[in-house]
Amino acid sequence: MMDQVKHAMYDGLLNVGSQQTFKLGLDIHGVIDADPGFIWLANFLVEHHSEVHILTGTLDTPALRAELEAMSLKYTHLFSVASHHTRIGTKMWYTDPENPWMDAEAWNKSKADYCREHKIHLMVDDSEEYEKHFTTPYIRYRKGAGDGLQNHDT
Ligand SMILES: [Mg+2]
pTM of the entire structure? Predict the structure, then answer.
């Protein structure tokens, strides 16, 4: 799986050229927290003048920032679907204060909209639902599929 990501990134980098900043989008749950190779990749890109956009459904709270901090993950942008829709006034309801609900279609297309708007060169996420809305390059990460965890540094 990591090989697939690396090949897509390599193609992306070739297309981007040296005059533009490469922009990688990464999901947290089921992607970054499933394979430490993504932490290595994110840190490498940030150290080499690329952008790493973290896209998550989770509310942007001190707890979320602490979770990222605990992973020693470097990133340049953080987009929270829940915080974004709170900010723009989308109708939402809560089962508990940390758990917002809203129209599924509007939720499911949020990351795709973000990637279009910010011209993200490659997004890696584990969601089949989100994938349907993407018109920019997207890889659906499946833990254990293909080369798996142990090959992330090959
Ligand atoms: Mg996920």
Answer: 0.87
Q: What counts of helices (H) and strands (E) characterise the chain? A: 7, 7
- d(CA 56, CA 60) in angstroms, rounded, equals 9
Separation of CA 40 and ligand 1 centre (Å): 18
What digits encode the pLDDT tens for the residues 111-134?
999 999 999 999 999 999 999 999
* Ligand 1 centroid distance, CA of 124 (Å): 9
Positive or negative, the CA dihedral 13, 15, 19, 22 is negative
List Cα–Cα distances, 8 to 22, 61, 121, 136, in angstroms: 12, 32, 9, 12
Class assignment of domain 22-143? Answer: alpha beta
Residue boundaries of the structural domains of the chain: 22-143
